[in-house]
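To assess whether ligand presence alters the predicted conformation, the chain was also submitted together with adenosine-5'-diphosphate. Input:
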Amino acid sequence: EKEIAKLEQRAATYQLVSGSDRQAVLFETLPLSKRTREGLQKAKYLECTEIQRKAIPLGLRRRDILGAAITGSGKTLAFLIPLLEILYRERWTTEDGLGALIISPTRELAVQIFEVLHTIGKRHTFSAGLIIGGKSLKDEQERICRMNILISTPGRLLQHMNQTPGFDCNNLQVLVLDEADRILDMGFKRTINAVIENLNRERTTWLFSATQTKSVKDLARLSLRNPEYVAVHDQA
Ligand code: ADP
Ligand code: MG
């Protein structure tokens, strides 16, 4: 209890002292839970990349984020770390249902995100699952209702929203749209709009994209509320 109150306080002030200079920021100096810090240490992540340094403090304060950063800049941890922290501070348990939803354009990318989550989330007790098709719908249906964190591809997710009894997203705290430009390039615009219509509005949303096209801006307008804009360019 005490640890959580302290973390919340430090997260609120962190942005003020960290500023936007180019100084290195070590993960251990961020207001993160012991569990997350240990997960990061185990995986030998020591220092934030630029997108992580900018996005994590905003994420911890539950701001909506429109993030523009090139491939390889470290976006996965930029959203997974605050996602874990938000659920931890909410004392999320199995009974609370789905707390965080990550949407990725392809199965391969979804699996990569899952692996990073598995590594840095080892010390947490949340349940996490992949919803990417390829297996029987029925298998997924049985597991999906017990998950706290889901990583999914758009088509399969919408299929479950329409067809899986008891799949309830009403309690969702965090939505992540990863590689939004690729999601749209692959023709998922209507699918993603339909998914968003099924979600509660009180959630926090983070949209990451390598490029800022017109269709990404449209999706941002539809899915984000008063977002902070975070950009990282080539020199990172
Ligand atoms: P993006 O999603 O922006 O393309 P990733 O999140 O996949 O980038 O990260 C790219 C690579 O950088 C991965 O191999 C990842 O392990 C590594 N990486 C990410 N953040 C850090 C960090 N803070 N310290 C060291 N390596 C990192
Ligand atoms: Mg990525």
